[in-house]
Amino acid sequence: MTTQPTSVSILREFCPLYYLLNAIPAKVQRGFRSVLVYLTALDSSSDFLAVGSSIGMLYLSCRRVAQMNKYSVEGKCEAITAVKLLSCFDDLVAAGTASGRVVVFQLVSPLPGRNKQLRRFNVVGHHKGSITSLTWSANGMKLFSGDDKGRVVLSALDLDQGVCQSVLLLEESSGVVQMEYRHQVLLVSTQQRSVLYCTQKQELLQLGTKPRKRTGRFGACFLPALCKQSDLLVYAARPGLRLWRSNVRGEVEDTQLLKSFFDKQ
């Protein structure tokens, strides 16, 4: 007797997020016009769910107390295109917009010794296009923002002094798709290539020897939970359903061909 193989569930919804969606208005009034609200960006952590919208409003749901707060990026009404949460000593959330603005919110915490007043920091004048990716350093002192014109900006935050200083770090020839920062190494995947930038040595290395022959929204990420810089491993998507594994020097160690896997599904 043969048995049929059981199907493997890759994604599972453990509970509907009606409480979150019901707390976000479907429409808002802008003068005499009623404007539809579209949800445009999402990030999550163990404590928060952050949702960006088409009206320049950031909705932040606290999981501990099931409370929804909203924060405006101010200025003109423009879509939020990227959001990124960080929980370290303070809770931080960054939001990037369609015009290239980045706003950082230092959230209020009820815990002793934590921040008691909402603070915001603005990053303006560096980006020339829509923000496509945001990534934090683990201690919240650095925020990297990338846009669809290929610019990567480093914003250094001093939360004790309430200061944020930003500089243009990289300028690629195509738009930024995905970024990640670990152990003083910034991984940037653009529509044309993936690069590693060591912030300590100010050294830029390309994954592989040549840029991609075909441009596209191919991402890259670090293998999680590696303890030191020399152990970092990169997995980068390639055209033709291929996946590269690279070391921290940008040297490709293995290529996985995924086409046959997807053909079987």
Structure description:
It is a single chain. The chain is mainly beta and 265 residues long. The protein is built from two helices and 22 strands. The strands form six sheets. A four-stranded antiparallel β-sheet has the order 3-4-5-6, with no helix packed on it. Strands 7-8-9-10 form a four-stranded antiparallel β-sheet, with no helix packed on it. The chain starts with 17 loop residues before the first helix and ends with a helix. The model has no long low-confidence stretch (mean pLDDT 90). InterPro entries: WD40/YVTN_repeat-like_dom_sf, WD40_repeat_dom_sf. It comes from Ataeniobius toweri. This is Tectonin beta-propeller repeat-containing protein 2.
Summed up:
By secondary structure, the chain is mainly beta.
- Order of neighbouring strands in the sheet with most strands: 3-4-5-6
Strand count: 22
Q: What ranges have pLDDT less than 50 throughout 5 or more consecutive residues?
A: none
Distance between the termini: 24 Å
What is the helical fraction, as a range of percent? under 10%
Radius of gyration: 20 Å
Q: Based on CA inertia axes, which overall geometry fits?
A: globular
H/E element string?
HEEEEEEEEEEEEEEEEEEEEEEH
The largest sheet, given as strand count, sense and whether it forms a barrel, is: 4 strands, antiparallel
Percentage beta strand? over 45%
What is the SS-derived class? mainly beta
Count of individual helical segments = 2
Overall pLDDT? 90
InterPro entries: WD40/YVTN_repeat-like_dom_sf, WD40_repeat_dom_sf
Organism: Ataeniobius toweri
Protein name: Tectonin beta-propeller repeat-containing protein 2
